[in-house]
Amino acid sequence: MMHKTSVDLNLATLTQCEPETVQAQPVVEVVLALGSNYQADKYLPLARQRLAALGEVRLSTDFQNPDFTATTQLPKPDYTNQCVHLTLITPISLQQLQQTFKTLEGDCHRCRQTKPNQVRRVTMDIDILMIKLANIENSLSKDSIFKSMSDWIVMADRYPFKAHEEAGVRELILTKL
């Protein structure tokens, strides 16, 4: 008899926080959204490699998505997106984590300045979707990564998730990371 496990995936019921309210809190796990619309085949592997240096990385399928800001007058290249679950080797504050990801984007030659009507080439964009704080972690439950979804905090500035982000998060949860 097949036993099918069901995961409560109503993300709207999870705790949501503005990132500012948990800036100084030590984070032990994070779910990220990676995106690139320029040389993704070069920059996504580089970002994954750098993230792996911070801890254990599990990946969703990568998705090809049109840029939702593109118009017929201003066509834009498609994005390649992927969600990443990262269990950090050492807990660090959300603020330090954000700075680490900005540095990683810079290492991927991310350029934030664009001229008006210039197509933005985004080599790497890293967004924090969800975090798990150190004070919630139970060291005995290493194998129960997503056992209790209530331990996760959704970044309010990223919710509701875009379709590809929700698909990536669902895939990571359903494959138990």
From TrEMBL:
SUPFAM superfamilies: 6-hydroxymethyl-7,8-dihydropterin pyrophosphokinase, HPPK. Pathway: Cofactor biosynthesis; tetrahydrofolate biosynthesis; 2-amino-4-hydroxy-6-hydroxymethyl-7,8-dihydropteridine diphosphate from 7,8-dihydroneopterin triphosphate: step 4/4. Its EC number is 2.7.6.3. The keyword ATP-binding applies. One of its GO terms (molecular function) is kinase activity. It is an enzyme of class 2 (transferase). The keyword Kinase applies. It comes from the Bacteria. Residues 31-133 form the 7,8-dihydro-6-hydroxymethylpterin-pyrophosphokinase domain. This is 2-amino-4-hydroxy-6-hydroxymethyldihydropteridine diphosphokinase. It comes from Psychrobacter nivimaris. InterPro entries: Hppk, Hppk_sf. Keywords: ATP-binding, Folate biosynthesis, Kinase, Nucleotide-binding, Transferase. GO terms for biological process: folic acid biosynthetic process; tetrahydrofolate biosynthetic process.
